[in-house]
Design brief:
With 191 residues, this protein is mainly beta. The chain folds into three domains: 40 residues, no CATH class; 72 residues, no CATH class; 68 residues. 11% of the residues lie in helices and 39% in strands. It is elongated and about 60 Å long. The chain starts with a helix and ends with a strand. The relative contact order is 0.09.
Length: 191
């Protein structure tokens, strides 16, 4: 009799599980009656969503890049793990308050580290320029504060300012900033 009751319970479970409607599959949990007791079974939510590894600016679209290679368009502001915020149009507000724009072809990882062939275009509302100070390149804010440059920066004229003070112009020529010199966002050097 015990075996028959166990067999009946198993058959009830199988029958209830296979007869679940689509509506029941989408429910939070499915209650399956059995002669002995009521068993609550939570349906699987499906495979885990792939982890987002970073954000890529492609043209005028910001994409969430996933570890499986898929990409979704960003539709709202995203806060990275270091507190940096990135809007859907590629505007960045770093945790320390600096602002910049992510240019097309560039990426930022979820921890806030930059990646890609281009670098940031500084926001001229907060950044004044870049200065060689004590042998290190510093970003000079409009309020006079300085922040060390940790990556190269692309200026509005297409030139890049490297962390060693080299300025690579669009035409392939280059200049090197000397101690105390400043390069402004437009590319002009102030000595």
């Amino acid at each position: 009799m015990k075996k028959a009751k166990s067999l009946l319970t198993i058959l009830s479970l199988i029958l209830a599980m296979t007869s679940c409607t689509k509506k029941e599959e989408n429910a939070k949990s499915v209650v399956i009656p059995s002669p002995a007791s009521t068993v609550s079974v939570k349906p699987s939510d499906g495979p885990a969503e792939p982890k987002v590894t970073g954000l890529l600016m492609q043209g005028e679209r910001l994409l969430k890049m996933k570890e499986d290679g898929a990409a979704d368009e960003v539709t709202m502001e995203i806060t990275l793990t270091d507190g940096t915020k990135v809007s859907k149009d590629g505007k960045i507000i770093f945790a320390d308050g600096r602002k910049a724009t992510l240019p097309s072809g560039s990426a930022i990882q979820m921890d806030g580290k930059m990646q890609g062939t281009d670098s940031l275009i500084p926001d001229d509302m907060t950044v004044k320029g870049f200065q060689m100070k004590d042998g290190k390149m510093m970003m000079v804010m409009k309020d006079g504060k300085t922040t060390p440059m940790d990556t190269y920066i692309r200026l509005k004229n297409g030139a890049t300012v490297e962390t060693d003070g080299t300025i690579m112009k669009k035409d392939g020529t280059h200049d090197t900033l000397k101690e105390g010199n400043v390069v402004l966002l437009g590319g002009s050097i102030v000595k």
